[in-house]
Amino acid sequence: MASPIITPMPVQTDTNYRPISRMAVIGLILALTSTLIFASETLSWMLLVVVLPAVILCILAWRSIRNSQGNLAGEALAVLGIVMSVGSGLGWLTMTAVSKYVTESEARAACDDWLAKLQKGEAGAAFLMLVPPGNRRLDFNPEEYSRLRQQFPGQQQNVSEFDNFLVEEVTGQLLRYGDKVQLKYGGLVESKSIREAAVFRFRYFFNSPSAQGMFVVVARAQDYYDEDGIRRDWVLSIDSNATQTQDYPYGEQLRITGARASDAVERFIFAVANPEDKDLIQKMVDPKNQGELQTVMGYIRPKGKVGHITTIETQKPMRLRADSKTNNSFTVTYDCTTIIEKDRAVDFSITYVTDINNPEKSMLQDCRFIGTRRIMKAAPGVMKAGPEGRLTQ
After folding, report:
1. Which of 70, 150, 170, 240 is the most exposed, fewest CB within 10 Å of its CB?
2. In angstroms, how far is the first alpha carbon of the chain from the final one?
3. Higher-scoring residue by pLDDT: 11, 144
């Protein structure tokens, strides 16, 4: 008897197809895109346009999948999208915060270094921190003021940018009184980016023998090229509109007597230029202590010169370099420049003693010759100081 043929019954497989959540897929794509946020600081808009939507979509997708009772797939994609987008956002914020802190610290250090140079009397080195880094390379010592004036001619006739820097209110105080000026850091006023360059504004308070007040130093980052590649340095300036000063009684008296003394210096210089005023010179000059007066007079009025010297002018404002007071007498020292024939300058300092109550008692006590130089006027293409101390073409 033949065995019966047993035909196997077909096996039925129960396969349940689960579609992948579209929100999870879109969220993951956005999360992948969010990693581009590290490519540039200008891509910060991706925090709102890409990163935040990616986080929201992936969270919604994850919750939807968990609540679908197994009808939706893609939970791993949603979790991965959450991790990537949140990581990208937090990583970028951390990187930005650290970068800003480091950059702000560099800017603050540059400002402190600049103020320290002023208090040490390093006027030339301090001035160079106001010009673009590419213009700071000199083939001479920056404290050679005569050459520095020639290197940076100003927009005003016969007045260099260095001269303007010396007579600024705050720089004048720091250069004149040095470490007698008490400085206190007042905090960060503002930080911003202009044309992708970081700009910081720091507040400082000062207390000097003649005044107290506050000022704001502006630090602007600027990239430049050297033999090592691209480097970054800081261009500094004082915001004159934010400067506030209050004179002490000593400072008020100094302003009045200082103005009188500078007028007396100007009268003296013009007396040298006019041979008829010899008697006036004798009345104004202390015969016991003239210093290098004859040397200065010889440059202003060369030997053998006959008649009036008409092409002569005193460069203003003069720089008040030192001051002191004994009873009612002020002793002030001015750095002066006399322009002769519009292209030659004589630099010298004059110390005057002037009485507060009786200006007629003012007397030239000492004179020191600094040097002579040719006036170099600003020509087209020469760098000049622009707003906030930056040099422009």
Report:
1. 70
2. 116
3. 144
